Every structure is written in C-alpha cells, then in structure tokens.
Amino acid sequence: MVTTRQTVLWQLVRSIRGVRPGNRAVIAVDGVDGAGKTMLADELEELAAEDDGRRLANLSIDGFHFPKARRYAQGMGPESFYRDSYDYDAFVDSVISPFRAGESPVRAIWDVDADEPMPTTRLSLPADCVLIVDGIFLHRPELRELWDASIWIDVPFDVSVPRGSERFTGDHDPDPEGASNHRYVGGQRLYFEECAPWERATWVIDNTDLTRPRLRSTRHPDPDMRD
C-alpha cells in the first residue's frame, strides 16, 4: 500500500519534472534547521530514479559555508548567523553558472565540520534535468532569481529544534528559546521578518509529521521563466 508520504513525494516529483521541460531547471528546498530538507531532497532524487523519467539530482548549500573565522567575525548572535554563514558568490560560480551553461556543477567547496576546503567533485548531468538545492535562507533576495521554482518546508520550532538536535551526539537543549539555540532560531526569525519565504515558494509542505506530510498550497511557476 502506498503511504501518504509516498503519495505526496510522487506528486512533487511529477510537478518538479514539469518545470522547464527539455532544459535544465533549479529547484530550491528551503526550511529551518531540522525541517527535513535534505531528507526530502534525497527522497525526491531516489524516487525519480525508479523510472525512466526526467532525472533529479541534489546538493546542499551547506557545502558552501564561509570558514568559521568569517562566520563568527561579527559575533555569536542571530545577525551573524543570518548574514555571514554562506558564500553565495562561490555557490553561484561553482554551481549555478556551470549548471546553466550545460557543464558539471561542483558538489561542495567547504567542509564545515573540519573547517577546511573540500576536494573538488562534480555532478555529471544530462541536458534535460532538474537540480534540487536544499538549505536554509534560500529565499533571500540575492538568491530568489536563481531558482526556477522552490519548496518551503513548514515545521514549527518546537518540532524542528528537537528533531535537528537528534542528528548530533551529546546533550542538546530541545527548547527553541534555550540559550544554546538563540543564534540559530533568532537567525531564522530575522529571515522570516525580512523574507516571509512561505509566501514566495512555489510549493509549501507541512512536514511536522514525517509520516504524513501535507502539501498545503502551491503557486504555479512561470512557464516562460528563463526561456
């Protein structure tokens, strides 16, 4: 029996495959830490590989962090998290520009855990395909025009923070208002105030219950975009 999650994911695969058919397309998967962005992107790629339809591939904006010294140069608060986490120029140069030119995009340039450059590896992709990019802050003004369509994964902080903490060893405060979460939750709140990403996304998914996500609203992508 097909599960509710599988039903929603297949609906997304079909919708994503309909963006700029016959060309290369880029789809953003945005949401707070712990929303399930990478999980969703991986699932979409795996489902699409089950048939002979248009290929979906994915990579994460997390491979394009600034070095730690740059990320924390302006302090440990929410502002620096929101403003200084990612090297968007490097992301465009390494991923978007080559992908649009029909070349192979770079998977990642920076290992955020080791705080050092990563060896260059590239995605070999066909002319007609969709690249899914997952990460936080993807509806920022300087990024919006990069995407042909986008997904906002909607999960409340009281669910996303404990879920995100489960990925790491040791004790982590599950309280979104806890001091150790101030930088990250506060940075996301700045993002919400400035960008309201759920209002700009093509598809909005309530992923609070991982077993039963809900596709709450959709906005059709512009069929003439980038043609």
Structure, explained:
By secondary structure, the protein is an alpha/beta fold. The chain has a single domain (about 5-220), classed as Rossmann fold, CATH 3.40.50.300. About 35% of the residues lie in helices and about 20% in strands. It is built from 8 helices and 8 strands. The chain has helices spanning about 5-15, 35-50, 70, 80-85, 90-100, 155-165, 180-195, 195-200; strands at about 25-30, 55-60, 110, 115, 130-135, 150-155, 205, 215-220. The strands form 2 sheets. It has a 6-stranded mixed sheet, sandwiched between helices. Strands 3-4 form a two-stranded antiparallel ribbon. A hairpin with a 4-residue loop joins strand 3 and strand 4 (about 115). Helix 1 (about 5-15) crosses helix 2 (about 35-50) and helix 4 packs across helix 7 (about 180-195).
Describe the structure concisely.
The chain has helices at 4-17, 37-48, 68-71, 78-84, 88-100, 157-165, 182-195, 197-200, and strands at residues 24-31, 55-60, 110-111, 116-117, 129-135, 149-154, 203-206, 214-218.
Features:
alpha/beta; Rossmann fold; disordered C terminus; 8 strands; 227 residues; 8 helices; six-stranded mixed beta sheet; two-stranded antiparallel sheet
SSE layout and pairings?
Elements: H1 4-17, E1 24-31, H2 37-48, E2 55-60, H3 68-71, H4 78-84, H5 88-100, E3 110-111, E4 116-117, E5 129-135, E6 149-154, H6 157-165, H7 182-195, H8 197-200, E7 203-206, E8 214-218
